[in-house]
Specification:
Elements (H helix, E strand, L loop, with lengths): L1 H48 E6 L6 E2 L5 E13 L8 H19 L4 H13 L5 E8 H7 L8 H4 L2 E10 L7 H4 L13 H5 L1 H5 L3 E7 L5 E3 L13 E4 L3 H18 L3 E8 L5 E9 L5 E2 L4 H4 L9 H10 L8 E3 L4 E4 L2 E4 L7 E3 H6 L3 H12 L3 H10 L30 H6 L8 H12 L4 E2 L4 E6 L2 E5 L4 E3 L5 H17 L13 E8 L16 E9 L6 E8 L8 H4 L1 H12 L24 E2 H10 L4 E3 L6 E6 L4 E5 L15 H10 L3 E5 L3 E5 L12 E7 L4
Helix pairs in contact: 2-3, 9-19, 11-13, 11-17
């Protein structure tokens, strides 16, 4: 028995001493950790509990030339709730949770009140310190939420947690969307295209830091501390775009694309002297059959231009003295064979034409014969002439994605015996619509080639910090004498050639039509399949005697039977040019002329129907430029009165200068504006500038004066 007790006592002692040693080891380890590793472990714990998170700066605005917003960052918010906060008592929660659920339902209309109530109760039971109430809350909605039961007590007592974010918005939706740019949602990382991408460093600003505290496995809640780093917002980009011109150009292009059932098209409007891009439109057919900004065809689609390239060929030949304006060219039967490859004239031209008529009538055979006869023995001289005009170079635009021009030379492995005649008429070369327009703009600018400019200023807090001035690419693409001949050629196209649809008595247009067959990859141009695709274009400038703007219009693959540039592209050019010309205040309208033994009576701008009735009563011939226009300016040519549409864009301030007081007051009050008059007679000045956005109820001061006649 004693032996058993002894054995038990021994075992108990062993266990006791084992536990004592283990306990002492734990105490020793704790002392060691506290004295040696304590600071390091506490820092790790703090980092796991508290962490700085990056805070994005507010992205800068992109504006039109007059400051109108084209892209801006709209604040939106995620609203969460520390629903288990000790400051929200059980009595407060129980008495107001129903009311809070009802208010949330009425505001967002996305859930039943019972669903919101269950969400709040479940979060309370689970001890949720970061319960998501609603995402993408607008600022007006947030202001209402701050007055809701419980939440109105604030961040601490009411548990309301507001997480600000910013959403990029385009106020004019798809207008110039591909040029303005947007975030590419298909990219793995945040990537911007268009001007958003090219000027991203300026727009994005400098990010800040916000301290957050862990409140769950994956949830973090912001902590208000003084050492938070505030972000520095991005700079604003002021573009060269005219939003009203952009709108009218898009409308004209869209209408023509629908009429022709075309695949896609583009328009570019450039200011001749500066290279400022005033409008750029790209529309492609979407799967639903509508048209939207899918791709920046204007700057990226490098393809065979067709007949618009003939200007480059004539410039080289004229400059080298290889072509004269009155040189006769025998077209024969309108068919020419070059080393086994046949070239024909689309317009079935035959017989003999002078060189300037070849250009005006856009003869493929005539142009190719002029260039081939001049350069067959030295084709590189022709290529050198093209390179001399810088059309083989990229323009290093302010926007990414510029297509690479392709003007091959005689050393290229793709050079063949038929390259020279086909290049002469715009095949076996490739340039973008913007590169083509830049060449024509240089001719309008008396030989000075300027770089296309999309952005003219960068501003910080309203102050200009960088200005982009016009850049000269080539100061002399050719001699003044050649430029003068080019002016005559381009004016002749509209006066007597393929562009007569643009001829009008008010202002002169100079330009060139273009029609190109579109190559179908390795299938050629589709002749054998009878599925030929065409590209119709018109590029030129106006007023021809004092160029202000140059425009290119390209319509790809029209499928309603018409495809010539003069038929599909010229009407778009005309509509845009007419509207722009109506706004050019520094262009003098021709004075009334006596064609019947009596002077045409002068009239102020006014309602077109009233003007038509008045002139008809006086037995004068009337020609409305646009029969559907409501407001017109009367001018005269040699035989009749022309009614020119008066500038008035929907949603913008109209130009009422020159109008009679009754018409001006009627128009402005009809638009919701309040009119104040100063003086007597017709309107000579208005306080709100034409073309600007206006607010209903705004006051407009009109200065009146009695004119002569």
């Amino acid at each position: 028995m004693k032996e058993i007790k002894k054995d038990i006592l021994l075992r108990v002692s062993v266990v006791y001493f084992g536990i004592l040693i283990f306990g002492m080891a734990i105490i020793g380890k704790a002392v060691y950790i506290s004295s040696t590793e304590g600071k390091e472990l506490l820092e790790k714990a703090r980092k796991q509990e508290m962490r700085f998170f990056p805070v994005d700066a507010i992205r800068g605005n992109i504006c039109a030339e007059d400051g109108t917003l084209l892209a801006t960052s709209i604040p939106i918010f995620d609203v969460r709730m520390d629903i288990s906060s000790d400051l929200i008592t059980d009595d407060l929660f129980k008495t107001q949770v129903d009311s809070l659920a009802n208010r949330l339902t009425k505001l967002f209309k996305d859930k039943k009140a019972s669903d919101y109530k269950n969400l709040l109760w479940e979060g309370r039971r689970n001890g949720d310190r970061y319960l998501m109430i609603h995402r993408n809350v607008t600022y007006p909605e947030l202001r209402l939420m701050r007055k809701f039961p419980i939440l109105r007590l604030g961040t601490y007592k009411g548990g309301m947690i507001v997480i600000p974010q910013f959403q990029r918005e385009l106020p004019f939706k798809d207008l110039a969307r591909r040029t303005i740019g947007y975030e590419n949602s298909e990219a793995a990382q945040k990537v911007y295209v268009g001007l958003e991408g090219s000027f991203s460093k300026d727009l994005q600003g400098t990010g800040g830091k916000r301290l957050m505290r862990r409140v769950g496995n994956a949830a973090w809640m912001p902590v208000d501390i003084e050492n938070e780093v505030e972000p520095q917002n991005g700079d604003d980009i002021i573009t060269t775009l005219d939003i009203n011109l952009q709108d009218l150009a898009e409308s004209a292009l869209r209408k023509e694309l629908i009429s022709d059932s075309a695949d896609h098209g583009c328009v570019i409007v450039m200011e001749v002297s500066t290279g400022f891009i005033k409008g750029i439109i790209n529309l492609g057919k979407n799967p639903k059959g509508g048209y939207e900004e899918l791709f920046n065809y204007a700057i990226a689609e490098s393809s065979e231009p067709g007949s618009t390239f003939k200007l480059a060929s004539f410039l080289v030949g004229l400059e080298d003295g290889k072509i004269t304006m009155d040189e006769p060219v025998n077209l024969g039967n309108g068919i020419m064979n070059y080393h086994g490859r046949t070239m024909t004239d689309a317009h079935k031209l035959t017989g003999t034409l002078l060189a300037h008529q070849v250009f005006e009538k856009s003869s493929n055979v005539g142009t190719s014969k002029l260039i081939y006869n001049a350069y067959a023995d030295e084709p590189q001289k022709y290529i050198d002439g093209l390179y001399r005009m810088s059309i083989n170079l990229r323009q290093n635009l302010q926007i990414a994605g510029e297509g690479l021009p392709y003007i091959k030379n005689t050393k290229s492995k793709w050079w063949s015996a038929v390259s020279l005649p086909w290049m002469a008429i715009g095949y076996e070369v490739a340039i973008t619509p913007l590169q083509t327009l830049t060449l024509y703009n240089a001719v309008a600018n008396n030989g000075v080639m300027v770089k296309p400019i999309f952005v003219k200023e960068i501003r910080k807090h309203g102050q200009v910090i960088q200005t982009f001035h016009p850049v000269v690419i080539n100061p002399h693409i050719c001699s003044p004498a050649t430029i003068e001949k080019a002016h005559l050629l381009l004016e002749g196209v509209v006066e007597r050639g393929t562009g007569t649809a643009l001829k009008n008595p008010l202002y002169k247009v100079a330009g060139k039509t273009g029609t190109a067959q579109v190559a179908m990859n390795n299938k050629g141009y589709g002749q054998e399949t009878k599925n030929i695709k065409y590209k119709g274009s018109f590029v030129g400038y106006f007023p021809a005697d004092h160029p202000k703007y140059s425009i290119i219009v390209v319509i790809n693959n029209p499928s309603k039977g018409k495809f010539y540039g003069g038929a599909v592209a010229a009407p778009v050019f005309k509509e845009i040019a007419d509207r722009i010309f109506a706004t050019l205040h520094d262009i003098n309208y021709p004075p009334p002329q006596d064609t019947t033994g009596h002077l045409f009576p002068l009239a102020n701008a006014g309602i077109q129907k009233d003007l038509e009735d008045a002139y008809a009563w006086l037995n004068f011939k009337i020609k409305p430029l646009n029969p559907t226009t409501q407001w017109s300016v009367p001018v005269s040519n040699n035989s009749s009165v022309m009614l020119l549409p008066s500038k008035h864009y929907q949603g913008t301030m109209p130009d009422v200068t020159g109008m009679g007081v009754n018409d001006a007051v009627f128009l402005l009050e009809q638009m919701g504006l309040k009119v104040r008059l100063n003086g007597r007679g017709k309107v000579v000045r208005q306080s709100l500038s034409p073309g600007r956005m206006y607010l209903k109820g705004s006051i407009v001061l009109l200065d009146l004066a009695i004119g002569k006649g």
